[in-house]
Sequence to fold (371 residues):
Amino acid sequence: MNSDVIELSASENIPANTLETGMQSPPATGEQSPVKPLLGMTLAELTDWVKSQGQAGYRGKQLYEWIYEKGVRSLLDVTVFPKQWREKVAQIPVGRSTIHHQYTTPDGTRKYLLSLADGQIIEAVGIPTSSRLTVCVSSQVGCPMGCDFCATGKGGWVRNLTPNEIIDQVLTVQEDFQQRVSNVVFMGMGEPLLNTENVLAAVRSLNQDVGIGARSITISTVGLKGRIRELAHHRLQSTLAVSLHASNQAMREQLIPSAYHYPLPELLAECREYVEMTGRRITFEYILLAGLNDSQEDAEELAHHLRGFQTHVNLIPYNPIKEVTYKRPSPQRVRDFVEALESQYITVSIRQTRGLSADAACGQLRASLSN
Ligand code: SAH
Ligand code: SF4
Fold:
């Protein structure tokens, strides 16, 4: 992926083997700014940039603080800079979005529809708890993977997000809550490993420039052949979450079209390699769909696959979307599933549903104004 912020073309971003899987091919992308935005640059890069503009090097540090701490959106507003110079460089984009719409749910979760430089709309979600502020970020406009239970997947794919467009989501939520963000999860719109390079650039900046602990950042992937192995080489301290959702190949294929080209044993083998290479655990996400993948046999089969894995399973009771008729299992059925896994010495958590009433919960993001 490109660590400089220039947008790759659609064909470069989506690997041929992905398009072969029958996922939707991308429509034409909107116009992207040809000028590299400043958000996402390191202190050294910003210092080089101000020097290239004929300014003293210390201005780089000032600019860095104005971008990452004060959240400036236009160079015109960096009032510590000489006015004449500010006006000269006013057209250089900082790389921030504008809030197009925002909803707050009774549980305090806030969903944001953000308008990007080319007019595309994405979603970010701020999830407060007593001790944390978590941001669920998008990595793409839409998603080409077409998972049957996911609103984003039903809406198709437009383009990958640039690093600044990812970092901006975190800054926007932080500013709106007036509270430091503690955790970031790549569980919004899009498949992060179809945009690995930009996601990694954003993760670097979120860690080093925005100050979020590497271990407090989670990248969630549905799994693409070879991509988890590729990611392992970066030896990230961040957490990898893999969306498994099924305990056997047939069910996985029914739910996730790309699974057809990526058999479950191969995915699990790559996950094992990841753990060996990075020394980090993987979390497996498992959406619970009533009557489909929530039986005791499913739990036993899942436990069998994960034996000896040093892992953690995050169960996600299905959040309804309008296109399909899947049902969320009863609380008792969820408890039974948990117990079956725990009896096999697998640690389990149940993802708390937040933001349901604004379609801001997992899998409900579609950048719509319907709420
Ligand atoms: N593309 C990545 C990350 C974004 S989706 C991935 O699939 O992992 C984030 C999480 O939301 C995934 O675990 C996904 O399976 C889950 N999800 C999608 N649709 C959902 C729904 N309707 N209800 C509950 N979880 C859902
Ligand atoms: Fe894409 Fe993840 Fe939704 Fe599947 S679940 S369509 S990979 S966003």
Remarks:
- The pocket of iron/sulfur cluster (ligand 2) is lined by residues 143, 145-147, 150, 152-153, 190-191, 222, 363 (CB under 6 Å).
- The CA atoms of residues 15 and 276 lie 26 Å apart.
- The chain has 13 helices and twelve strands.
- Residues 163-177 form the longest helix (15 residues).
